[in-house]
Amino acid sequence: MPQIIAIGPYSDRDATALEQDFDARRVASLAEMAELPEAERKDILAVAFMGHDPFDGARMDLLPSLKAIANFGVGYDAIDVEAASSRGIRVTNTPDVLNDDVADLAVAMWIAQARDFEPAMQHLRSGDWGRGRKLPLARKASGRKVGILGLGRIGREIADRLAGFKCEIHYQSRSRKDTPEGWTYHADPVDLARAADDLFVAVVGGPQTEGFVSAEVIEALGPDGVIVNISRGTVIDEEALIAALESGAIRGAALDVFKGEPQVDPRLIGMKNLLPLPHIGSATAETRAAMGELQRRNLRAMLDGREPETPVN
Ligand code: NAP
């Protein structure tokens, strides 16, 4: 009977590696795991987890021998880490290997939003260009004052890229960071939004940052501002964002993540000043392969009783 269970929608490559290297049993979701007979759950030692459904204490208790959860992804807000620690369960994640992809995407979304890629492509595809019709002018991206909310691993990569676009860098974190000269620290998100033209959201998700981008932060950004969110949908007060996009209180937004995803609030879907993407921050073949390898190295270390490379608890 396998002692490892792989939960989630793995690629063929990762599924094969988990089966071959760990003799892992695969299920699509936590709900499917919960439906396994008790005899099949009781000896499971480790979970290779991929997904965003809540992995809470009650679900951990369905696996009474569980000692390790190796998460596929850097964001582990779906896992109740406190519940895991109190049960003696180690948790790992996959940081750093995805920084470049997520930062690339954030900057690409920001430029695509400023330069009106979607209407411009539509202008060509519809034949309007060929018919000699005029396309309204877009807005310049380079040289803006940008605010990075959360100068962690990904936030720093975004800031480094934006510095190359001649932007003035402002950031908010819980403490000052060692940064290049000229970057400005703000202790408060509202102050950050007030100082910045555009705002990049790169803080962790989870209950501690829920609604961190509040109505006040959005208002402080002002009518020319754009919000780019690659962190988690929960970080933004989505009602306040929708109201601001509808009223023109901000210029626009570019979102890779949504509250309640993959369901997206229908009011957002049709908005012309929103650039929406279906959570593809780390979705390249190269990065997903690196994430899978790191997940499996962590899993192997925990099963062998060694310290994992990237522990969470
Ligand atoms: P990280 O290095 O841990 O940085 C997280 C940032 O969040 C830090 O700036 C940290 O602040 C801040 N933070 C943590 N706890 C906080 C709290 N309680 N209150 C306020 N700020 C808090 O994480 P990362 O590797 O950059 O990843 C950031 C997030 O990006 C992940 O958690 C994940 O949700 C998201 N992500 C999304 C995608 C995607 O596909 N769109 C892909 C990967 C990651 P300090 O600087 O003060 O420590």
Protein model, in words:
With 313 residues, the protein is an alpha/beta fold. The protein has two domains: 4-95 and 285-303, 3-Layer(aba) Sandwich (Rossmann fold); 99-276, Rossmann fold (3-Layer(aba) Sandwich), CATH 3.40.50. The chain is built from 13 helices and twelve strands. It has helices at residues 12-22, 30-34, 38-41, 57-60, 81-86, 99-114, 117-125, 153-164, 189-195, 215-221, 238-247, 266-269, 285-304, and strands spanning 4-7, 25-27, 46-49, 68-71, 90-92, 145-149, 168-172, 184-186, 198-201, 226-229, 252-255, 274-276. The strands form two sheets. Strands 8-7-6-9-10-11-12 form a seven-stranded parallel β-sheet. A five-stranded parallel β-sheet has the order 2-1-3-4-5. β6, α8 and β7 (168-172) form a beta-alpha-beta unit. α6 crosses α8. The relative contact order is 0.14. The structure holds NADP nicotinamide-adenine-dinucleotide phosphate. The site of NADP nicotinamide-adenine-dinucleotide phosphate (NAP) has 28 residues, from α8. This is 2-hydroxyacid dehydrogenase.
Strand order of the largest sheet: 8-7-6-9-10-11-12
Reported for the largest beta sheet, the result is: 7 strands, parallel
Structural class: alpha/beta
Strand tally: 12
List keywords for this structure.
NAD binding; NADP; seven-stranded parallel sheet; Rossmann fold; alpha/beta; NAD(P)-bd_dom_sf; 313 residues; binds NADP nicotinamide-adenine-dinucleotide phosphate; D-isomer_2_OHA_DH_cat_dom; single chain; D-isomer_DH_NAD-bd
